[in-house]
Amino acid sequence: MEYTAKFLAQLLKGTVEGDENAKATKFAKIEHGKPGTLSFFANPKYEEYVYTSQASILIVDKAFEPKQPVTPTLVKVENAYSAIADLLKYASAQKQKARRYRSLLARWHFSTRFGKKVYLGAYSYVGRHVHIGDNTVIHEHVTIGDNTVIGKNCILYPGVRIFPGMVIGDNVILHSGCVIGDDGFGNAPRPDGSWEKIEHLGNVIIGNDVEIGSNTTVDRAQMESTIIGNGVRIDNLCMIAHNVIIGDHTVMAAQTGIAGSTEVGKYCIFAGQVGIAGHLKLADHTTILAQGGVIGNIRKEGQVMMGAPAIDAKLYMKAYALFKRAAEQ
Description:
nine-stranded parallel sheet, Udp-n-acetylmuramoylalanyl-d-glutamate--2,6- Diaminopimelate Ligase, Chain: A, domain 1, alpha/beta, 39 strands, 13% helix, UDP N-Acetylglucosamine Acyltransferase, domain 1
């Protein structure tokens, strides 16, 4: 797609400093800028590249004043980082403009209710009594079980598996290999030491504006529902066990695992490889740093925790300093 500096200024509510007819057809990092590319400058440590970049257009903050001559045309905006995020979202939306299409190699039932402009890729399967909202894109090799409800403007990438009876809101993105609604890990011990499987008859409810990464699994509830709140972001290779509740706008990085029946508050942040035990409650705005292990309730909002078992991050760093010093003696 081709962008002019004038168009970008209109789209991003900015101003042009230079040639308003300058054109760019590709995005590039500022250090890799070449003619015909569009870059942005938001981090002061990259300022040296502003003066060496050969990009055609450079998005910068309004407050930025070059100390040397620059080659690119500058598009000045309120916040360059936010502006490039908005532009990338716009570019992605243009590529994925909804169109009605159902591959002859896909399979669905007469009881399926498709909204307007639903895309259904080859070798995908849609079960009985499924309702799919307007403008939803279902890529190839996706399986959607019976009695599932999927909202508007969703994207299901290749290889997604959705078990029967799931409820998925609007504007949800499920990446490749994502599994929604398989059985939870429930087993009861028998007197002889073997294990009896506990059936899981509940479902998963996913709110609006949720994104779930590749090869992440969200288990169905044993009874009632596993719930993913609005605006939640879950990275690749995460594990959400049965009956977990995740509050609105919580984010978690790759390889995070949450055991069954734990309730996570709103606006929480979990870094990579965080592990959370089952049947716990975590307060809103909790942050768990990388490889943190939570084994008890967190009742106070806004805590930043670290370590396994996780404790206050500042206390952990003090304890680590003492531990390291003792080891060196």
